[in-house]
Design brief:
globular, 2 domains, alpha/beta, 14 strands, six-stranded parallel beta sheet, about 15% strand, 19 helices, Rossmann fold
């Protein structure tokens, strides 16, 4: 039996923010499968910050996982500040205190007091104590830095998941603040600090060979390449070929997608790296040059950083007024119908550490067009059309080929379903267990 302390910080952040993101989704999916492995005894913890520690515990409570996933970050450090928060700095008492100070005109900026409160609660935070590591074999972090106390405990092997190093390779795509030549990372996304703490005792999992190569090249002698393993992600079972036309039409109507016109779908956060402004220009070129009057482009997903150029590209041309639809975030129950109803799914991203959306589309049997860059060719294999994301003609011709050829669509749909079968979260969990076993051998 292998005893594993699984860092749940990304799940706590998602629970706090009330929406999931790529890292939290893959962390949760892998965790759910690891809990089913008979060779593992799983424990939960959080070591990023006191606030995230609190929300990680609330996440477990909301999912009713406390019995299956006992909590193992119980240091005196965190116990004391939890009592301080409850009794001295509780939300209600502190709010009353602030209102009194404002009433007597002692303060004029209450935000500074709340910032002070946060600093007091976070100062010197440590979630996991030395005794929490007793009888543990593995400490697995899904993104955040391995705590120093874990690295000091030689009997516990540190395992870190690195999803990609895009913020390091291409900070211009991540909205990083700059001061001269320095980039400033938000504390909850400070990948350079996480990687700086890696030493030869680490074992690392990456979702693709492309990410593994990027990481090994970046770290150099800081890590042994044979201790960096590929553990591919997978699409969840909420993605399936939906054959119910009424269900598809109902989902389309919910998001303002015409039910009587074919549509091209793209789903991602609206941000520069996803190359959606390039997709819009390629779509415009397609419908203009080929005089296509019925096809619609549907762009789904939350607004990310610097999304304005994407909206501007859609508004710049009058002929696109009723041809591009922004749906915003899609509910889980609508994903399979929306994917399944599309003529094709297009994902022209400049760079991905894995790229789940093309795999999700393939699991729905939807023909896929994606970039010939980074990890994406690994994911789609020979089941998709690959295009140069910097070449609008290339992308436009791929769109035209799928639009014009029902036989090509059927062939890609068949191959997509076959390719998607090569990925599963059960397989990801098994590869993770094998990594644990190698780390301990």
């Amino acid at each position: 039996m292998i005893n594993v302390l699984y860092d749940c910080s990304s799940l706590g952040i998602a629970h706090r923010n009330r929406w999931t993101f790529g890292i939290s989704r893959t962390t949760e999916q892998l965790l759910n499968q690891l809990l089913e492995c008979p060779d593992l005894s799983m424990f939960a913890g959080s070591d990023f910050s006191f606030g995230v520690w609190l929300y990680s515990r609330l996440y477990l409570k909301s999912r009713k996982l406390s019995e299956r996933l006992p909590w193992r970050s119980n240091s005196i450090n965190v116990t004391i500040r939890n009592q301080v928060k409850t009794h001295l700095l509780s939300e209600s008492l502190f709010a009353q205190f602030v209102q009194k100070l404002k009433f007597y005109k002692i303060i004029d900026n209450e935000a500074l007091l709340y910032q002070w409160r946060a600093k007091v609660l976070e100062f010197g935070f440590q979630g996991t104590a030395w005794h929490d590591l007793n009888n543990l074999d593995i400490y697995h972090s899904s993104y955040y830095a391995i705590p120093a106390i874990v690295k000091q405990r030689k009997s516990v092997k540190p395992v870190l998941t690195v999803h990609d190093i895009i913020p390091i390779l291409h900070p211009e795509w991540c909205g990083l603040l700059k001061d001269g030549d320095r980039e400033y990372f938000h504390p909850e996304a400070d990948l350079p600090s996480t990687l700086k703490g890696i030493d030869p005792s680490f074992w690392i999992s990456c979702p693709s060979e492309a990410t593994r190569q990027d990481l090994c090249n970046y770290l150099g002698k800081q890590v042994h390449p044979e201790q960096v393993k590929v553990v591919p992600w997978a699409a969840s079972d909420r993605f399936y070929p939906c054959q119910d036309r009424e269900q598809i039409k109902a989902a389309q109507a919910t998001y303002g997608i015409p039910t009587d016109r074919p549509y091209i779908l793209s789903l991602s956060t609206l941000e520069p790296r996803k190359n959606l402004d390039g997709l819009i220009r390629s779509f415009l070129q397609l419908i203009t040059q080929e005089n296509i009057e019925d096809l619609v482009l549907v762009l789904s997903g939350r607004l990310g950083w610097d999304y304005q150029p994407i909206l501007a590209a859609a508004r710049q041309y009058p002929q696109l007024t009723d041809r591009i639809i922004f749906t915003g975030y899609l509910r889980d129950q609508d994903l399979a119908p929306i994917y399944s109803g599309a003529v094709a799914f297009v994902y022209p991203s400049f760079y991905e550490g894995f790229g789940l959306p093309p795999l999700e589309a393939m699991q729905c049997g939807t023909p896929v067009i994606t970039s010939n860059r980074s990890s994406l060719p690994e994911v789609v294999g020979n089941a998709a059309l690959l295009a140069d994301p910097n070449n609008l003609d290339d992308l436009s011709q791929s769109l035209l080929a799928i639009y014009r050829s029902p036989s090509l669509r059927n062939d890609l749909s068949r191959r997509s379903l076959q390719q998607a079968q090569q990925f599963s979260w059960q397989s990801s969990a098994q590869k993770t267990v094998e990594l644990y076993q190698q780390a301990l051998s």
